[in-house]
Amino acid sequence: MKSRRSVATGSGTAGAPGRWPVVGHAPALISRRLEFLSSLSSVGEVVEIRLGPIPAYVVTDPTVAHQLLVPGDRDYDRGRLMEKASVWFGDSLLTSHGASHQQQRRSLRSAFTSEQVDSHVRHVQDAARTLVESWTADEVLAVDELMKDLALTNTAQSLFSTDLTAENLESFRLHLPTLFKSVIFRTVLPSGMERMPTMGNLRFKKAMRSLNGVVGDLIADRRAGSGNGDEHGDLLASLLAAQDDQGHVLPDQQIRDHVMTMLVAGSESTAAVLSWALYEIFRNPHIAHRVREELGAIPSGHALTAADVSSLTYLNNVVSETLRRYPVPFIMRRTLKPVRLGEVELPAGAEIVYSPYLLHHDRRWFPEPHRFDPDRWSSTGHGSITKGSYLPFGAGAHVCIGKRMALAGLTTALAVICSHWRLEPVAGQRIREVATGTVHPNRMPMIPRRLPADDRERAV
Ligand code: HEM
After folding, report:
1. Best of 324, 400, 403, 405 for a ligand 1 pocket test (most atoms within 8 Å of beta carbon)
2. Which ligand 1 atom is nearest residue 159's CA?
3. How many whole angstroms separate alpha carbon 448 and alpha carbon 272?
4. Has the ipTM of the complex gone over 0.85?
5. Number of domains observed in the structure of the chain
6. What range defines the domain where residue 278 resides?
7. Is 400 among the annotated ligand-binding positions?
């Protein structure tokens, strides 16, 4: 159904207003991405936008989003976003589809079992404790940067049994924003821009060289250290031991692609969600109070398990709400054959956008969508929400492989931090949502304040 806000399109679908000659909707997608995407709910169920001259179809209806992701998966590949990102991620779970994707997913499954999630919880608890014990009361912390380091350290430790050096962490901190920004520009602007000798493209090459160096060293160190057998039992051990049907080991390039993908996919969203959760908990004293009350039931110094953290009902509601309020901005697919999506007939090769951010901020499914309210999840839980309206981890064949690890890790890190300190947002700082691969804060300065002695003694 078209609304009065739509404009006419050649395809007969509702068209988004504000289209420019040549660059299409790129200006809106670059400068005010979240606002633009959210505005499309009132235009139609499937809305046509332009990425440069290329039409793309934004799904704004949960039923249609479910139809795109779940039963219809074999009709689509990963689309323009991942095509542009494949210079960075190579051939991996994030960029592949169909039989090759299924084969990769089967071979990586063993790194995401319940035992691995439990061991992740232990790593996160240890690393988060080390972090909070290094803080001094009343200093100003750059919480967003600290959460990036924490998430990356935990991913590297859990999947690759590696302690990243301060230099490695700095390299990621410096170069990830450039890579995300370039991939989005290349997706929304006309093709061919990536071949021009611009400053952005030169920075992209430099960033790739630096991160390839970190990942290459990580793999080489393991190869050198493991001799004839690899005792680590982690993802890297499975990758190094994997053989195809003819008994050939995986090419070095493929191992690099998987390691790079997991380090980035495993840390970037986790870091953003951690920062936002701390921000929301501590700017709402009633939420901080309820979180601490719940944590009081855990014996001090107890080594947490995945079962412990999943029983923290209120803290898990805080995590669910953070994932609703600050999810991935947009993801793409492309039709492999003519497809009917909702009421719309699309030809083969059509680019499609689904946006967890748009769906999670539609007031029809989430009243007062900008209000942070963990109690949305307390009476109804996840059972009664409209199917397809809440997609923080996607759905269907490409649902996040790290979902259970992410949820357990997020709750663990928050439990440790909130049981040690009260973090006070620095007054007068405007915290903005910045959309790249995730929705992350532009900055997050906070001041750790000491808890009363009784509470400190009960720290997790
Ligand atoms: C808060 C944390 C996280 C969020 C919000 C998140 C979100 C997502 C989403 C929305 C997708 C679906 C992409 C699509 O539809 O194409 C996805 C896929 C993926 N995620 Fe996550 N993720 C998180 C944590 C992790 C972690 C911890 C890992 C690994 C350690 C990970 C690895 C991946 C991979 C490899 C895929 C591609 C899966 C496939 O296509 O088979 N993610 N994630």
Report:
1. 400
2. 30
3. 19
4. yes
5. 1
6. 14-457
7. yes
